[in-house]
Amino acid sequence: MTDETPPKRRRFVDTTPLRVSPAFARLWFGGAISGIGAQLTIVAVGLQIYDITGSTFAVSLVGGIGLVPMIIAGLWGGMIADAFDRKLVLLVSALVGWSSTIGLALIAWYDTGLAEGDVPVWPLYLLATLGSVASTVQMTTRQSVTPRLLPGELVPAASALNGIAFGIQLTLGPALAGVLVASVGFGWTYLVDVLLFSTMFLGIITLPRMSPSEGAERPGWKSLKQGVEFLRSAPNIRMSFIVDIVAMAFGRPHVLFPALGVLVFGGGPVTVGVLTAAMAVGTFLASLFSGPVGHVHRHGLAVGRAITVYGGFALLFGLTVLGMQIGLAQGWVADVGEDFGEVNPVALGLAALALLGMGASDEISAIFRGTMLLMASPDEMRGRLQGIFIVVVTGGPRIGDLYIGVFAAAVALWFPPVLGGILIIGLIAVLVRAQSSFRDYDARHPTP
């Protein structure tokens, strides 16, 4: 009788992984706190480059320049995660990332003594790329560590908890960046990241030793070729990567935020923080109330619908910017202080609502896609597939940054999110319909 009782439906995320594995809990908390600083630095670098150049395209180059190194780092990171002690890989990548942030802080303090027009931009691109490479290797390795710390049935719950951590990071980091840059400057803002980053080391150092599996392939062409060949024979996993690239390439408006804060909504750095945090609030809320997703079995269909909703909210965001640029609601302004000037709260609120919806729908998609990858992939391929997965989730937004930067400069600030939303809705409809195995994917019988 007991065996036939249906499982209790959860409303909130399952926190069991934090209770049963102290090592996972320490790594999770360390990553959540240090991630706040990482997001702070991402926003601060964009603000600093825009402050120096006044160019949205220059801001978009942060992602464009780092794209190829991040792809290499993701692929290589997956191979070294399978071939070496994963604790050591995490520690080395964390040290590299920490050093890049220290470099940004030193440069910011040095630049304050230079005359306007004499401040070089290339060191910011270099250190931002170095930090992104280190972060890519670290994310790849952390994902492959999770099954070593938790029983298999708790891995999906761990994915949802990681979504909560990411939501916290994206909520607090950008908001904190906007306030700190406006009040104390770039040097002290980067120093806050240096201090927060130290919590990551506590989570890594206390991990147990994680030796590679017996017979693990050494990093190199043969190892990479095995991962790629498996992916070729895994249409459902492959399609989960493709639909995410579509969403991120055409629906990620972050590089517009500095210009929107100055030219459209007002509010400067604070508006940048609000817009970035709004998307993170959606991510956080979707993860917090992720309990019901455990009862959804048609994961491919769910991913398609979630990304379609994402495209709809991207279109709403673009239409809001369009409305402002053609003069709608121009009289609805409020003074938010001498440092920040006037801001349009109506338009900013509508844009933030659209971004919140984008964050929520993207997180629902991510939970299902992540579960598909973990449950449908063999253990011996997990590191390399996670490496390819990280390339997708980090490389897609960089392509999106270039797309936004080019079309914003060539047409208008509103154009790329409007066109992107329409493209996402149309392409996802075509892809899901064309790949029947992805549309019919059943989590009770996972197939790659």
From TrEMBL:
Query: Sorted alphabetically, which SUPFAM superfamilies does this protein's record hold?
Result: MFS general substrate transporter (SSF103473)
Topology in the membrane? Multi-pass membrane protein
Spell out the Pfam families in the cross-references. MFS_3 (PF05977)
The UniProt entry's GO CC annotations, sorted and at most eight, read:
plasma membrane
What name goes with this protein? Answer: MFS transporter
The answer to whether the entry has keyword NAD is: no
Keywords of the record? Cell membrane, Membrane, Transmembrane, Transmembrane helix, Transport
Instruction: Give the superkingdom in one word.
Output: Bacteria
> Where found, per UniProt?
Cell inner membrane
Give the residue spans that cross the bilayer: 27-50, 56-76, 88-110, 122-139, 160-182, 188-208, 241-264, 270-290, 302-326, 346-368, 388-408, 414-434
**From which source organism is this entry?**
Pseudolysinimonas yzui
Signal peptide span per the entry? none
* The keyword Isomerase belongs to this UniProt entry's keyword annotation: no
